[in-house]
Design brief:
single chain, mainly alpha, 0% strand
Length: 421
């Protein structure tokens, strides 16, 4: 797990997906007779819902005007966070017309917000099977494939989107991250450069390229790109978050903390930023603030197994009781990092944990061995076995990629034990 964002469908990414789908026009629908169900920007969501409900309930409403009213009402429900009601309206439209791709795309976006990637994928699949040139659906499915570490599939979907729309900045940035997941940094860099060419006054391409330089441990060039991102967009939370990683790796902890605070101030609903700051708190030994930030980062997705583990580490180190056993009741412990949680709960031995960390995929093997050793070392520390902890944390330092938070925090733990990693 890195200090910043990784291959996940994050709240920010979900918001982009929803914005893309909700901005689509409904070409075949006519405006309903009720003005309060139309496109007036000054309407409150409550007024739009009431107006559209009146149209839907009107006995004389045609199927076409009913569909438009349901689309508009579903949008309002989604914006109010009433996701089940939004989906119910989309369901009704699709029951009447299974080929209504606009409704399917919007429903997929709401499924994403409801954290139901399987249902969203089914809608994206249907749209793409009907219209191979639907860029929004291709990008939506690519995001989900990326989140599942299906980098080949993500690259394929982003590539198809770019064949339809070669100047799509989001697709170039997304494909770059998928290439990075495949460790094809040259192709990743090419997409970032294209994103900069397409949008030189946007932060996307510079953040994209800065992340590649971070992967190459080229901190000076990474810093230059993150600084450029902030120059073109003074509110670039991603630029400040990237600078925080550069500063943290340089050992400039105060500066890194200031950059992360700035990023959070600009984007307080980006819960990944709280996770990043929690890692920094762990590194400096401020375990209570780390626990607080890990808890905050879990708000949109309490089933995030990695963050539950990190939260448990912070709670144990701050002499707070573990809540992992209760949290584990709602978690999938069969897939990685589930075995680490089972180890923490005493359900498997360390030998069994290492066996489960073994993987034929070298990229998975490295990451899983890294996290297995790190978290086992933290548990040994909590159990006051400093000798065992030192060995396990030392192994983690030797195995973990530099970009992994486990590497940085393990080094800090070893220093606290009087060692010089």
């Amino acid at each position: 797990m890195t200090m910043t964002w990784r291959g996940r469908v994050t709240p920010a990414a979900l918001a982009l997906a929803v914005a893309a789908s909700l901005s689509m026009g409904v070409a075949r629908a006519q405006a309903p007779s009720s003005a309060t169900c139309g496109n007036e920007e000054n309407l409150s969501l409550e007024d739009r819902i009431a107006g559209c409900t009146a149209v839907i309930e009107a006995a004389a409403a045609s199927q076409q005007s009913d569909a438009f009213a349901r689309l508009r009402r579903a949008e309002a429900y989604a914006l109010k966070g009433q996701l089940d009601l939004a989906i119910a309206d989309y369901d009704r439209i699709i029951e009447r017309d299974p080929n209504d791709l606009a409704a399917r795309l919007r429903r997929a976006s709401v499924y994403l917000l409801r954290r139901d990637p399987e249902a969203a994928t089914a809608d994206f699949d249907k749209i793409i099977a009907t219209d191979r040139r639907n860029v929004d659906a291709l990008i939506g499915r690519a995001m989900l494939r990326f989140a599942k570490r299906d980098f080949d599939g993500a690259v394929a979907d982003y590539g198809q989107a770019l064949r339809v729309h070669p100047e799509n900045l989001k697709a170039h940035v997304g494909r770059s991250r998928a290439y990075r997941g495949m460790r094809d940094l040259d192709s990743a860099m090419g997409d970032c450069s294209k994103a900069i060419e397409i949008g030189p006054q946007r932060d996307d391409g510079y953040v994209c390229r800065g992340e590649i330089y971070l992967s190459k441990s080229d901190l000076d060039r990474a810093a230059a790109d993150f600084e450029r991102a902030i120059q073109v967009d003074a509110k670039s939370s991603r630029g400040f978050a990237g600078m925080a990683v550069v500063q943290q790796r340089r050992g400039e902890i105060d500066a890194a903390m200031a950059s992360l605070n700035q990023a959070i101030g600009l984007d307080p609903k980006n819960f990944g930023l709280y996770r990043s700051r929690a890692f920094l708190y762990l590194e400096i030994g401020d375990v209570q603030d780390a626990a607080s930030d890990f808890s905050r980062s879990l708000e949109p997705n309490p089933r995030d197994r990695y963050v539950q583990l990190w939260l448990d580490v912070a709670r144990r180190r701050s002499a707070q009781p573990s809540q992992l056993a209760e949290a584990a009741k709602g978690l999938n412990l069969s897939a990685w990092p589930g075995p680490i949680i089972k180890f923490y709960l005493g359900e498997i031995t360390f030998s069994e944990l290492m066996s489960k960390a073994d993987d034929a995929d070298p990229s998975k093997l490295n990451g899983q061995m890294c996290t297995a050793n790190y978290f086992a070392g933290e548990l040994a520390l909590a159990e006051k076995d400093s000798g065992k902890a030192a060995k396990l944390l030392g192994d983690a330092v030797n195995i973990c990629p530099e970009s992994f938070a486990a590497s940085t925090v393990a080094r800090a733990e070893l220093r606290s034990l009087g060692m010089n990693p």
